[in-house]
Amino acid sequence: MLIKTVFLLFFASFGACDPSVIIIGAGASGIAAATRLLKNGITNITILEAEGRIGGRIYSVRFGEGYLDLGAEWCHGEKDNIVYEMVKDLNILRHTQEFDPEMYHSKFKRLDQNFSNALLHTFDKLIAEPKKSASMGERLISRYEEVIDQWKNDPSVYAIAQEAIKFFEVYVIGYEGAFSWFDVSDDDDYMVSEGDLNLNWNGHGFKTILDLLMQKYPAASKSLPIDDKVLLNKEVHEINWSSKQAVVKCTDGSSYAADHVVVTVSLGVLKHQHDSLFQPKLPGDKIQAIKQLGIAAVHKVLLHFPQRWWNDSYGGTYLLWDKNDGKRISFSEGPVKDGVSWLTSMSVLLPVLHNSNILEAWIVGHFVPEVERCPDEVVINGVMYLLDYFGVVMENITWPDTIIRNNWYTNPHFRGTYSFQTPHTRRGIHSDAVILSEPLGNNGEKPNLLFAGEASNPTHYSTVHGAIETGFREADRIITMYK
């Protein structure tokens, strides 16, 4: 009799009113939400994914000796990091040996390594100073001349240090994922996880965290039935949340109704489509939050060479432009703005761990959308032109035979790489991220429209662990409604 009573109680909790849930997006937050729901007995789940694959901004592709990550690449920190907690006992993550790139100047070619290291150390100290301005750009420019005074007694070195502010700008916006350092708030709510901020996946790819969430790894026999819940190539064009059940319509003509819809699309998609995507339209404070949070993109380019022409000690190349050379170069392919080539937006070339014949270039700033649209051969030609122009001297430099890249900004399913706080972002306890995360709907205590994704994380935005936290958060919100 007791067993029967317990069974009936469980059935009353979930079985008699098994809520239906649609999750829009099969990235880290969407997969996290689905797995949490399944583990808590909510099984009526449909995941609508616009791409032909799962993973979202995690995009690990098999190549050569391991997996290459075209999106998220590093596990950032160890303490208070759900990604690290999930994998720490599986002997997967590795501490990354610090790169020591050589710095080249467009006019003076290779610079003294001691000066290069001192310059980078000065950058890092300047970034870490107290935040007193509206934007990072304002503060760093205002302080720059003062911090490079250490080289004032050597006019030639001092001139290079002055020109390095352009490299510094590219350095900053590449890290922040912005198009301009004036777009990035000087102070922010981001909480750094203690420990190694650049743990690598030892050739396994960031996709490993998805396999762990779905319990496909380390034992596939224990996997959750996520694959049965995912519908690929389902681009959503309307979410009607006006009734008790929300209705989701896709561009292929299909439609789905559910008690709850969890929206996990990127901030970039919300910026571009919120006005047409939601019926009725979102309330003003949520629209304001979407507008005031920031997202742009970096363009990661991976080049495979048939023969490796660099040695094991090669730590990469930083490119520092003479103030006039950006307008003097003869490379005619690809976009140009105000007489300056897109090549000036590439500042670094790095070796790729666990794929010994691959170099990785980062293109940042306002040129990113146009470079994403360039043919592969233009990008290859540009990178190789720069190696020659900057005088990178190595024997037997070969031409790459493969280029691997992904267009995060021009792809309408992403519209950016990761979010950041702008000078206009509301911060603190009522931050724009908090407002973005608040559920909507007139279904009493059971809202039918919920929001997840890294941009809705007040303190761990821009990260995979932040995205997973929000997926768990919204799943727990639904679970609590039916307890």
TrEMBL record:
It comes from the Eukaryota. Keywords: Signal. Residues 1-17 form the signal peptide. Residues 29-479 form the Amine oxidase domain. Pfam families: Amino_oxidase (PF01593). GO terms for molecular function: polyamine oxidase activity. This is Amine oxidase domain-containing protein. It comes from Aquatica leii.
